[in-house]
Amino acid sequence: MIRGMLHSTAILVLLLSTKSIADQIILTNGDSLQGTKTGETESHLFWQSDIFGPLTIALDDVASITAETEMPATAITDLPSELSYESLEGTIGLSGMLRSGNEDREEWDISVDLAWRNENIRHTGDLYYQTRREDGNQPKENYDLGYAFDWFFNDDWYWSNATSFGANDNRGIDQFYSVGSLVGKQFWETDKGALSLETGLTWISETFIVATPDQRLLRDKKDQRLTWNWTTNYKKMFFENIEFFHTNQLLISVEDADNSQFNADMGFDFPLVEDLFTKVALKWNYDNQPAEGIGKIDRSLSIGVNYNW
User: Fold this and answer.
1) Is 42 helix (H, G, I), strand (E, B) or coil?
2) CA angle, 186 as apex, 180 and 191 as ends, to 5°?
3) Which of 15, 38, 272, 283 is the least crowded, having the fewest Cβ atoms under 10 Å away?
4) Residue 138 exposure: Cα atoms within 13 Å on the Cβ side
5) Taking the domains of the chain in order of start, what are their residue ranges?
6) Which class for 162: exposed (0-12), middle (13-18), buried (19 or more C-beta within 10 A)?
7) HSE-up of residue 132 (Cα within 13 Å, Cβ side)
8) Strand (E) positions, 61-139?
9) Residue spans of alpha helices (H) in the chain
10) Superfamily of domain 88-308 in the CATH hierarchy
11) 229 in Cβ contact with 248 (< 8 Å)
12) Phi, psi dihedral angles at 122 (to 5 degrees)
């Protein structure tokens, strides 16, 4: 994870004009950080963490600060025009299984997640790919490619525009795509955790795989609908290095409330070595109007290795 304030002139001002103010900051979610306060604007506080390095924290997320001395007012005043805030984080995950003997089975899962924040703009992208082959049969493939552009029009509220494209053989979906526009609130976002809620409209188009009596596969049955979208993203760090994550999405058709889907992804990242983690994840999907011959509920548990930065 890279979080920084990228301007050499501003850093020089800090080094020359600030005194050491340090101790502890307590956030509204109960987390605490040891370190040094290096500056403040009307909406954000700049904090040099002893563990995580330079951080930018919204003042609304700060419950209290314990400090011994004050920073000169001139140094603080100079910061807003000199400092820019940028962050980049990402994850690459891999898991797989090979089995032979009574059952021949091969399965691989690959996932990539990226998030880049620059001032009031945030870009997020994700890629998921799974392939599974059993007893030499035709492999089943699932993939999902998504992108979202978030514009923070104030400290916590943002406008999100997202799109996704993919397929899911397990769910009988030959192809799907979605386009959505949502309003979200970022309740907090630090190296100790984050919580955001989003709601808005999402257009979904799905093409189903349908088998005829002679076992020919047809791919021309479509379901297109406008849905209300409620999405939650949450993560929390425990014991400084174990992360719990949870995301869920509820989609309800505007024209037919009985046509709904609920998707959830949750689990833990356990540290192995620096930046390398074991990921244990549970995916749970519910679709009350699935493709013909497909069950309403899908569950999968995976254990893999992730590289985080």
Assistant:
1) coil
2) 120
3) 15
4) 3
5) 2-83, 88-308
6) buried
7) 11
8) 62-66, 85-99, 105-118, 121-134
9) 8-17, 73-82
10) Autotransporter beta-domain (2.40.128.130)
11) no
12) -130, 130
For residue 229, name the pLDDT band (cuts at 50, 70, 90).
very high
Spatial separation of the C-alpha atoms in residues 293 and 172, rounded to whole Å: 8
pLDDT of residue 166: 94
Class of domain 2-83: mainly beta
Cα 204 from Cα 165, distance rounded (Å): 10
pLDDT band at 18 (very low <50, low <70, confident <90, very high): very low
The first and second tokens of residue 52, run together, are 């995580």
Token pair for 182: 């949502």
- The mean pLDDT value for 238-249 works out to 91
pLDDT class of 122 with cuts at 50, 70, 90 = very high
Residue 198: name the closest of 229, 162, 234 by CA: 229
Q: Which of 208, 238, 234 is nearest to 220 (CA)?
A: 208
Alpha helices in 3-83 (DSSP H): 8-17, 73-82
